[in-house]
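Input protein
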Amino acid sequence: MTAATATFDNRFFARVWPIVASHETAAVQALRRENLADLSGRVLEVGAGIGTNFPNYPSSVRQVVAMEPESRLHARARAAAATAPVPIALTNETVEQFNDGEPFDAVVCSLVLCSVHDPVQVLRHLYALLRPGGQLRYLEHVASAGLRGRLQRFADATVWPRFLGNCHTHRDTERAIRDAGFEVLTSRREWTLPAWSPMPVSELLLGRARRP
């Protein structure tokens, strides 16, 4: 399944993200694998990018419906889907537009909730797309404390969102997940770059939440 018309265009981000995704640290790659471990049934992936997650889906997954609205990234994801170990159905709808008649067993969000305009609204929509008991798996940028938190706020108020696909680094993502009605099952923070690194996205949040 591939939607007919792309709905988002960001030329600069579409040039930069494939380079970033192709050079992820071993720590980020391991977190991606852990985020998808033990999934089964029908899965919705939000913001597939170039399909970085696709090779990591376990064979217990019946189908992945993956959304990527950026036209150039969508084309790269389509190529990745062709060699994925599980069936991948692609759509270029945004998460706010997406609807589906069959509920999902799980939703996967990887480095995407930082870029949506209203995280709680998006998460409430994802909540509605899940079956009762379905899981939200998330690997996301998260607001840091102290000096790095101040760096994040500065980045978010200046050039970072403009050039990097509306990415906001200083968001309380877990609070947004709870506010949307999810029950958080597990959650931890991980440093994926040295603590002295000046990058505002060095700390990631990995977790699992459930629709009650």
Observations:
- The longest strand covers residues 130-141.
- The two ends are 30 Å apart (CA to CA).
- The mean pLDDT is 93.
